[in-house]
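Handout, page 2. Input:
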Amino acid sequence: MKTSLLFALFLLPAALIAQCDGVRYREFLFSDFEKTSNLTYGNNVTHEGTAQDLLLDVYEPAGDSETNRALVILAHGGFFISGSKDGPDVVPLCEDLARMGYVSASINYRLGFPFANLEARMTEAALRGVHDMKAAIRWFRKSVEESGNPYGIDPEQIYIGGVSAGGFIALHLAYLDEEAEIPSYIDLANPGLNGGLEGVSGNAGYSSHVNAIINIAGAIGEKSWITAGDEPAALLHGDVDTTVPYATDMQLVFGVVPVTEVDGSFSIAQRMEEVGVAHCFETHEGFNHVPHTSDAAVYDTTLSIISNFLSHFVCDIALDCEYRELSVGVNETILAESMEIYPNPAADRFRVRYDAPGIALLSIYDLTGRRVMQSTIRSGEEIHTAALPDGAYLVECSIGDRRATRRVVVTR
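Output:
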């Protein structure tokens, strides 16, 4: 899929340029989002030959008056075996991108593959995912043309991304762009694989073109598929990833069964440097697979790099691949003033609520100052206390440099 970046920037509509005020698409402009769930965007057969409806969720900025917004579509991870559009690898990103002013979407795609001849069968699973993602892209463009643009998107500003297996989907959608590149060991006569590169998952007649992609801990079958003029990419990957290779290595199923050699983000970045494809590359040093799901600092860095990368293309500003601290824009709420714990006293569980966007690092200390629990949470999540003896504890939440502490009593 070749495109001229310079030409595309000249085509940015005036309505979209007017939104690029240095806050929208770069900071938390909105305090909340609205979610529309389980929209059917297509249908196709699984590897077993049974029909499956394809569903997605849409996230929009709450109270937004703009109707011509950039769209980001994300695909979850799970090794093409498990995972869903409700997963913790994609939902926080969708929510926070919506708070920044994007329309975002999380898709389900067809899962599963036979556990025989794994090189071919897993590659076919990735191609099914590509077909489904392309159907989702076309569905949004169709909604503009045929349904009055119910989600308020700009059909010329569509971006995709994915985590782990979803990253495989984004990469192969962008760079496996010639039918001659489809590996010869793939049997396109197998269920759900017909339709060439576009597939038949739905919404024929509309373009599946995207402006750029985001790859979080995914890989590609052949980095040589990437050539000058291809779509730019943001690449984020832990350098001790034991699930998906960080560089070029053998892909393993369950960490033990070899499948095929793939090129991870490090090798992709090298290739993009060689052929002149614009990209951002962030290494999560010392981290394993998808650390943004469990480490608040990594999540903060991930969102910052993604917002820098996307806003370059949406708003025609200089590409900045460095970490940038995100502010909460015009709806800033001080974490310390908004944090509450309920119920308190608590028996087997309590919830932590705060009026601030993003994932918080939760730390619980006993009255001797010893940390007894630590995890990442989103506002309103339940904290289970089965491991805590009865007594009083200090609960600290932190997002960036903002911290708040509350006392909770556990009694049964």
